[in-house]
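Weekly sync notes, structure subgroup
Attendees: PM, AL, DS (notes)

Item 1: joint prediction request from the bench team. They want all two components modeled as one assembly rather than separately. Inputs as received:
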Amino acid sequence: MPKNNLFLDALAGRKVQRPPVWMMRQAGRFLPEFRAMREKYDFFTRCRRPDLAAEITLMPVKRLPIDAAILFSDILVVPQAMGMPFEIKESVGPFLKNPIASQRDIEKLQMPDVEDSLGYVFEAIDRTLCLLDDEIPLIGFSGSPWTILCYAVEGRGSKTFDKAKVFCFQHPDWAHLLLQKITDYTIAYLSKKIEHGVHAVQIFDSWGGLLSPKDYDEFSWKYINQITEALADKAPVIVFGKGCWFALETMCDSKASALGVDWTISPQKAREFTHNKITLQGNFDPAKLLAPPKKIYAEAQQMIREFGVQKYIVNLGHGILPDVPVENAEAFVKAVVEFN
Amino acid sequence: MPKNNLFLDALAGRKVQRPPVWMMRQAGRFLPEFRAMREKYDFFTRCRRPDLAAEITLMPVKRLPIDAAILFSDILVVPQAMGMPFEIKESVGPFLKNPIASQRDIEKLQMPDVEDSLGYVFEAIDRTLCLLDDEIPLIGFSGSPWTILCYAVEGRGSKTFDKAKVFCFQHPDWAHLLLQKITDYTIAYLSKKIEHGVHAVQIFDSWGGLLSPKDYDEFSWKYINQITEALADKAPVIVFGKGCWFALETMCDSKASALGVDWTISPQKAREFTHNKITLQGNFDPAKLLAPPKKIYAEAQQMIREFGVQKYIVNLGHGILPDVPVENAEAFVKAVVEFN
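Output from the run, pasted for the record:
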């Protein structure tokens, strides 16, 4: 049990004095020490070397009084382990030379033992937990199967992931085959993370909000729900679906312990859609961390008043932007820590 | 009064036998004749030459039994007329060399008489109306002030328009100065379009959905509402806010005749949020026009059943994609025309 148990209390719906706070991508480019590390090691080296991943995970913890750490890693390590050799390409970002385009491509995917293929992640967890010394809890994460499919079929990032969507609409049977494989592998992966001691897991459905509510049920939620069902008895599960306001009502009836929401939904609506019955996490507009610190402080406290102190985890509505001054992130965290 | 009055009937809330149908970006790259025209003339030449703009506007009308035409033009002709020389840059898209970055930049913007600066648009309307020969109504349009600000400050397209948002959060006074200027000019522009005979106008708020509900009220809706108030007595106004589901309840109390919705909201929710009291337009997922035509036909008819035949205009949830086969667009329109 971590000494600071605020985050796990909020996930369990236990009463707290103030809400816990962490920030998506808190171990990221807004930190000068992260940028310095980036000069020396490329992206997947930082993911694969447990010493580096642990060091990066701790960076924001040393700077800011946050209530949870999240393991530095990437959602694409899962498709990499399954035989999709994603790389980071200059000025493109995540890149897969031969995207998934046929049933044969999907059948060829592997499901190696996660200890063999992703052992470096579990070793990073072991090291991080050791460094954290039970001060605050550690979060593990994965991408949602739909979000992984988006990259696997598109082969790179996209504004709209139309190619991935068209793949699903033209070949729903192939899509489901692929989604089920990713789901099974993700369950094995996250289960092992929990065995290694992460205190909670978060599923990032970054691209769920590109689907219609019906297609979301079919191509995304169905699989997220399988993962949630498989893990809920082992650790609290947070589901963050960017743009997925329309699914909140369905999600809050699942075994998830908390739901992440982005900034395009008001706290009032988020509570209404989830019938006040589940812990919510979010939803400060990441761009607003570039407003003057006084404004950040005031708006963050107003956000807490609107969500309410209980069953609430303060966070951004998406990852922190690279050009946020550290003092602005500090103003945000301080607004929570000093809230009363 | 056009011979086919279905579209204007739906806008006025009059009873119809079937809903009208048109498609955002229907005069676009999915048409081979549009692509042929593109080989010969660059983008803004096509906008500026009334003969070409009229010819392009008619292209989809000749192919498909649609119930409204929309003038071929671009939302960026407005900032161009105000002194922001947007161009189309190869593999970048809309591009402004010196984006708006200071109060001085905003003060320098001009408000020339719209007949002088945008006469080519009004001439294109005159020509188009002549060619349409009162068969179907013609829609004019503009971008929302917020969406224009996005391009003016960012200087190009973006996934998230963070620079534009940060501009507003750091300098709200400058933002409001710019938004008011764009609003005033847009009112003059759309008023003149109506004088020249367009039967309805649509305001495209393509990037409204990037804002939180509060910021949307402050930086987008406030100005859209000014435009709507100024024009509503002259012609029906359609407001399309992509991703703006959260503002539907506010919007439906305005003087707008119809609200456009994207595919991430179910027809049921869209009706619920607007209390069944306003005409809705939308919301087929554009990527689904690449599904097999039989599926398109079935899902389009299902969409009509869910929205209901009355107070409804069938459309996509955003612009048609360039690679949609013409027969797929035909299946979509046919599903509406044959609906009973």
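Discussion: Chain B touches chain A at residues 159-160, 162, 165-166, 169-170, 209-215, 243, 245-246, 263-266, 269, 285-288, 290-292, 295, 317, 321 (CB under 8 Å).
Action: AL to compare against the crosslinking data before next sync.
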